[in-house]
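To whoever is covering the structure queue this week,

Two jobs came back overnight. Logging them here so there's a record in the thread.

Job A:
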Amino acid sequence: MGVRGTQAAGPGTVRVLTLDSLARLRRAQRRSAAVPRRLSLPEDMTVPLGCDAVAVPARYGPLLLPRLPRVGCVYADPADWWWIVPSDSDVALEWPAPARYATGALVPHMPGAPGLIHRPDDTVPYTPPIPLYLALCRLTGTTPTWSRPLSA
């Protein structure tokens, strides 16, 4: 026996909502809240190589800045800094934990979107991925992938 409620759907029409309908609506609401969103680049930026992002815990952000030869667009929220890199910057690289790679610069949906905290002087939004990768490896004490011994 289900719980029923009524909701007016228009003049002279009543729509019945069952407990199953309400549960489906709630699931759909949760799914839409979990849909990631793309970091929006400044309008004057060009992305000839596509666009991905690397998230690092916020505590690493200020430590990375002076280690990089060029800093592109960087976004921040209270937990993470998001570095814009060219698409496919994860090919043949295992980004060191706790970094997270975001294909398409899609970030988890959260109440406040990460805000732009740094933009380059030119119109290319990228931080070079190899220097970023090496700086992250150094900060996290991780051996770069290509320096690890091969196992048979």
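Job B:
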Amino acid sequence: MTRPISMAVVLEGGLVQALLVEDWPTHIPLPRIAVMDYDTEGADDDEITHFLIGDKPEEAICHSAEPEVYESLTDALSPRAVLAALDDLPKGDDSDSPLSVARSVRQSILDLDARLNHLEQAPTGDDYNELYVLANCGLIDVLEALGDPADFGE
């Protein structure tokens, strides 16, 4: 099942810093987004766009932008996580994306590796068993998130 697309407009001091999309289908081109600021005070004439809203002339500082795909970033807050914190996820959106599940599995394996490196000793049989559980259960989670109907047991 495909999750609904989530979007975020990231502001700092009232200025757009980033436009993010999450769960955007890779086969669909990213949209162009018009960014408009009606506060033209102090703007140079060449920065101002003139247009009509109905019959009324208006002006704004405008530019177009293409959003960034959240899943390709390492230092951004998930739009979906913000919507979840606001308790405003779309209805029927109760599964984690396969990409986020895979990232979580990878991070768990990296954390185990870092812990073993920090101890500066050879891995034990228990360490290998823990790695197996992380990898196997993590891959099952990814398969389930992808919609695999197989019964993986407990």
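Note for Job B: Residues 98-119 form the longest helix (22 residues).

Please reply-all if you pick these up so we don't duplicate work.
Q.
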